[in-house]
Design a protein that fits this description.
By secondary structure, the chain is of the alpha+beta class. It has six helices and eight strands, in the order βαββαααααβββββ. Strand 6 and strand 7 form a beta hairpin.
Amino acid sequence: MITIKNYAEFESHLGNHLGTSDWHVITQEQINMFAEATIDHQWIHTDPERAATESPFKATIAHGYLTVSLLPYFWHQIADVQNLKMQINYSIDNIRFGQAVIVDSRVRLKAKLAAIINLRGITKATIGVEMEIEGEKKPAYTGEVVFLYHFEG
C-alpha cells in the first residue's frame, strides 16, 4: 500500500503503477444482495439452477455494476490517502467490460495514476483501473475513476 499525504506526493506517482489489491471472492450471496439493492433480479445473476442449463457461462455471473461498485473497497487497499478534509467520487470514465465474472471467481484491482491536476487547491486524480479475474487472460473491466481530494492546509 502506498501512503499519500499531499498533492506533491500524489503527483510524484504520475504514470506509475500504484499497486494491486487483495483478491476478493464474488459469492452468490453478494450477487443476491446486490440484486436486492438495485432491483435487478435477472436470472443470469440470481438463479443458479437456470444459469447452469441456459447460460453460456453454465453458472451465475456478477452484475457488471457490482464489480464496478467494488472500486472504493479495492482502492482503499492500494492507497492510503491521508490529511484529507474530504474525498469526492467525481466520475467513472471509459469503463469497458471485457469478460463476465462467474460466481465464486476471485477478482482484484490494479491501479495506475493516469493524470493529476491541481484545481485551485483541490487535487483531481484520474486512476486507471483494471479488474483482473484469477486464471483469466481478459480483465472483467478496464477504465478510469476520478477522485477529488481536498487536502488539509
